[in-house]
């Protein structure tokens, strides 16, 4: 069959400076949002403590692949994560001396800017318009659902995975649409890097690559080239996954997959496009409605690829960041091809340049304002909780320093609230309860740890804490109790003063450390096992 050619001329491709000018709005918007994020977050949003614990383990083992990561639950957790970024983090710390907090504040945001480049080129070639590509990249740069897990601490892994996946998808556009087989090697390398970085982004890569083949090629030759990319990526990464299978058995991968849903389990994600955030401020809801309307517009125009890609993202990976990534291209096509021409027609009595200028200014203000407010954690994004909460603050870090310096290395802790995610990495001590990394043990183990963590973190009295510790069958040496504001799985909570008061008057707990935001109590020997086995009180 005849293959479609790109609308970009060879002469245009020889002017990278011109492309940079088209990229500038998205990059400048991304820089602006990164500035607001860094100014408002002396500590990173969410957590990356487990990731840096993995990097520390890699470094101390002479860069050999570890089998388990200690500190997270009594037995530790299996190490089956794709390892690339953990080796990068280990090397960064060893070569530069930068600490985990600094790296996790800055690195994700920098990579978040970098992946706008392959995104722009992908949109340019798919949409055949630099204006639409610019708008696509701009929307992604300011879109809260995309920013959430890329600019925050977890973006240490996820943002590079997005960079590799988008680079590979652009290579797929060149292979299948333009017939340029010179992109085989970049596609294979990008696929291998994606496999070695994050499994969900690998699924997005594969699904997108298949759709590109079906839409633009469908030849036997194209099928062979696509299969060669897949085979090359799997072969290049075999030293890692074969070693993991040898250490833990193939079931470790299926065990982790089962903890976060599977194909089709996130169909309700489509609601995110219309309903979930409509009740929020209009600045955040506009770009969630536009893709839905844009899909209807494209289908009416018999342009099915982008709606199909969007639907495939919903049905397979289901994560909002992928849905909105594709949705950005849908929005750009709808706005540039559908909305702006109508505005020009309806505003015939006005200067058309004025209409376009005003429209552009409004889009820029809307996008940058929403993204900046979200990045600064000034948006109610979690039922009254801030949009990008910090898991730790200065007082909690001071408490962790005390724990590292004043407790035995063998001491076990139960940490209430999300500071637990950072605790093992910062202190070298073990937390007995926490879901991080437990997904590699399977669905049951993960859900059990998650429920235990939530119940303990929501306790408001010594009686509740003792009963929940007994229910969880853990006997820590210390409990780490936040005071005032803290978060549980990203949701903001307030710890009442009664929690500390009842612990002070309880014979089973002895105050060991206290500052304005944290109290650490030593647990009396045998205290937990001596508690009655009746059902625990409901946390209040």
Description:
The protein is an alpha/beta fold and 540 residues long. The chain has a domain at 394-523: Rossmann fold. Helices cover 59% and strands 7% of the residues. The strands form 3 sheets. It has a 5-stranded mixed sheet, sandwiched between helices. Strand 1 and strand 2 form a beta hairpin. It is globular, with a radius of gyration of 25 Å. Residues 4-12 and 262-283 have low confidence and may be disordered.
Structural class: alpha/beta
What is the CATH class designation of the domain at 394-523? Alpha Beta
Low-confidence residue ranges: 4-12, 262-283
Global outline: globular
Strand order of the largest sheet: 4-3-5-9-8
Fraction of residues in helix: 55-70%
What is the radius of gyration computed over CA atoms, rounded to a whole number of angstroms?
25 Å
Largest pleated sheet:
5 strands, mixed
Could you say what the CATH architecture of the domain at 394-523 is?
A: 3-Layer(aba) Sandwich
Instruction: Please report the distance between the alpha carbons of the first and last residues.
Output: 66 Å
* Fraction of residues in β-strands: 5-15%
Number of discrete helical segments: 22
DSSP E strands, number: 9
Q: The CATH topology of the domain at 394-523, please?
A: Rossmann fold
């Amino acid at each position: 069959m005849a293959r479609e050619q790109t609308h970009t001329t060879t002469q245009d491709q020889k002017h990278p400076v011109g492309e940079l000018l088209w990229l500038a709005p998205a990059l400048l918007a991304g820089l602006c949002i990164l500035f607001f994020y860094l100014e408002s977050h002396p500590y990173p949003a969410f957590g990356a403590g487990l990731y840096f614990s993995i990097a520390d383990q890699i470094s101390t083992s002479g860069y050999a692949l570890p089998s388990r990561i200690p500190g997270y639950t009594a037995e530790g957790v299996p190490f089956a994560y794709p390892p690339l970024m953990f080796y990068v983090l280990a090397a960064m710390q060893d070569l530069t001396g930068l600490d985990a907090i600094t790296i996790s504040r800055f690195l994700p945001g920098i990579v978040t800017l970098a992946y706008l480049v392959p995104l722009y080129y992908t949109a340019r070639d798919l949409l055949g318009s630099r204006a639409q590509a610019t708008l696509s990249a701009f929307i992604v740069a300011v879109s809260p659902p995309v920013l959430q897990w890329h600019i925050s601490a977890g973006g240490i892994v996820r943002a590079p995975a997005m960079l590799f996946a988008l680079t590979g998808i652009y290579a797929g556009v060149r292979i299948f649409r333009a017939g340029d087989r010179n992109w085989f090697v970049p596609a294979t390398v990008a696929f291998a890097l994606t496999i070695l970085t994050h499994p969900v982004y690998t699924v997005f890569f594969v699904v997108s690559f298949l759709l590109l083949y079906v839409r633009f090629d469908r030849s036997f030759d194209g099928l062979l080239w696509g299969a060669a990319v897949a085979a090359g990526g799997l072969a290049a990464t075999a030293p890692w996954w074969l070693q993991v299978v040898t250490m833990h058995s193939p079931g470790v991968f299926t065990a982790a997959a089962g903890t976060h849903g599977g194909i089709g389990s996130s169909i309700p994600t489509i609601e995110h496009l219309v309903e979930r955030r409509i009740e929020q401020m209009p600045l955040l809801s506009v770009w969630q409605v536009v893709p839905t309307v844009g899909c209807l517009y494209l289908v009416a125009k018999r342009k099915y690829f982008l709606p199909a890609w969007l639907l495939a993202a919903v049905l397979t990976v289901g994560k909002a960041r992928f849905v909105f990534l594709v949705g950005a291209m849908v929005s750009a096509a709808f706005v540039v091809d559908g909305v702006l021409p109508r505005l020009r027609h309806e505003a015939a009595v006005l200067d058309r340049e004025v209409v376009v200028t005003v429209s552009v200014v409004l889009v820029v203000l809307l996008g940058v304002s929403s993204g900046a407010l979200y990045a600064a954690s000034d948006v109610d994004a979690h039922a009254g909780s801030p949009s990008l909460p910090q898991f730790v603050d200065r007082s909690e870090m001071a408490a962790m320093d005390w724990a590292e310096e004043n407790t035995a290395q063998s001491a076990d802790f139960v940490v209430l609230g999300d500071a637990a995610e950072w605790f093992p990495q910062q202190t070298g001590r073990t937390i007995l309860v926490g879901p991080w990394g437990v997904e590699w043990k399977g669905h049951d183990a993960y859900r059990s740890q998650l429920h235990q963590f939530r119940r303990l973190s929501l306790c408001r009295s010594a009686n509740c804490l003792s009963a929940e510790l007994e229910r969880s069958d853990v006997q820590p040496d210390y409990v780490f109790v936040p005071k005032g504001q803290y978060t549980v799985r990203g949701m903001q909570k307030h710890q009442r003063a009664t929690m500390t008061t009842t612990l002070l008057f309880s014979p089973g707990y002895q105050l060991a450390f206290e500052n304005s935001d944290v109290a650490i109590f030593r647990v009396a020997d045998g205290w937990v096992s001596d508690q009655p086995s009746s059902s625990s009180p409901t946390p209040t």
